[in-house]
Structures are given as structure tokens and as C-alpha cells.
Design a protein that fits this description.
The protein is α+β, with helices and mostly antiparallel strands and 171 residues long. The chain has a domain of 116 residues: Ribosomal protein L16/L10 (Aldehyde Oxidoreductase, domain 3, Alpha-Beta Complex). It has three helices and eight strands, in the order αβββαββββαβ. The protein has a five-stranded antiparallel sheet with strand order 1-4-7-2-8, with helices on one face. 26% of the residues are buried.
């Protein structure tokens, strides 16, 4: 099945709907897919750098693990092509804990024969997402003074993968 649009999941209006059951075993969501993001830290982890660039989102949202992985790949590959791997450090901060569910509705005639309706409307797990607050750091890049422009462009490319606007701050 194809991915559903990000606008369906990006709202952060209320707490996530979680399954409640009288027995603890039944409250666990089974069949949840794993996170798409493979690495959270790239580059030189041990060295110290002069500048720190942070990508922060401008409002509360939910970011899918697919978008986090796409942003990580876009920013890391841009920096890696421009400078050496040992001259930067990149970290993705949020972890996608939130499980996204989809409850398809049958839209054909006589659907009641094979469809249970809203009696078990919890939905089937389709993916994972990270619930992020306004001003939260999404990606951090540590780099030397000479390569700040490269890191800024990499974070700009990463921000295009998210459904909300973001800011780049330099420290």
C-alpha cells in the first residue's frame, strides 16, 4: 500500500489515541512496523568543532520516520560530497515512538457483508512518527568555521523533507 499524505498525520492538537484494555497484554499494539531511520549519528563523533548548527521546527507537529530518514540522507550526502567524513558531526534527535494507524472505510455497495464498521475501529498500524514540539531540535551539525555554508545548505535541504517550516540557528 502506498504512503498516505503527511497532512493526515501532522496535526498535534490532542494527545494520541492509545488502546486501553482491562488486561495489559491486550493493550499492546501488535504488528507495529519498525522505524525507517537507520542511523542517528554520522561523521566524527569524538572530535570537537567550532560551530554548531541546529535545525528547529517552528510549530508543534508529527514527523514520520520516512521524512526523518529522507532528511538525514539528504543532509548527510550533501555534506559528505563536499567535505571529508572526519570533519563534521551530524545527529538526528527525535526518535519515532508514536505508531500511526489507518482504518480504511469500505466505499462500495453491500460493504456490510465483509466490514465490521466502527465496532473495532482502532486501525491497522501503518508506520511510526515522532511527536515534536515547537522549537525542538531535529538535526544538529557540528562543523568548523570554514564549512558553515556547506552545513547551512545541508540543513536547508533537510528542512524541505518536513511538512512544517523550520529555522536554522548557529551557535
Amino acid at each position: 500500500m502506498a504512503l498516505r499524505p503527511a497532512k493526515i498525520y501532522r496535526n498535534f492538537t490532542r494527545r494520541p489515541f492509545t488502546r486501553t484494555a482491562q488486561k495489559q497484554k491486550k493493550a499492546f499494539i501488535t504488528g507495529a512496523p519498525g522505524s525507517r531511520i537507520t542511523l542517528f549519528e554520522m561523521g566524527n563523533k569524538k572530535d570537537t568543532f567550532e560551530k554548531t548548527l541546529k535545525l528547529k521546527i517552528s510549530k508543534d507537529c508529527i514527523i514520520r520516520s520516512n521524512a526523518l530518514e529522507a532528511a538525514r540522507i539528504a543532509s548527510n550526502s550533501y555534506i559528505k560530497n563536499k567535505i571529508d567524513v572526519m570533519s563534521y558531526y551530524l545527529k538526528v534527535h527525535p526518535y519515532p515512538h508514536h505508531i500511526l494507524r489507518y482504518h480504511p472505510l469500505a466505499g462500495v455497495a453491500q460493504a456490510d457483508r465483509y466490514y465490521s464498521g466502527m465496532s473495532h475501529a482502532f486501525g491497522r498500524p501503518t508506520g511510526r512518527a515522532a511527536r515534536c514540539r515547537k522549537g525542538q531540535e531535529i538535526i544538529t551539525v557540528r562543523i568548523n568555521e570554514a564549512n558553515v555554508k556547506i552545513a547551512k545548505e545541508a540543513l536547508k535541504r533537510a528542512s524541505m523533507k518536513f511538512s512544517v517550516s523550520s529555522k536554522i540557528s548557529i551557535e
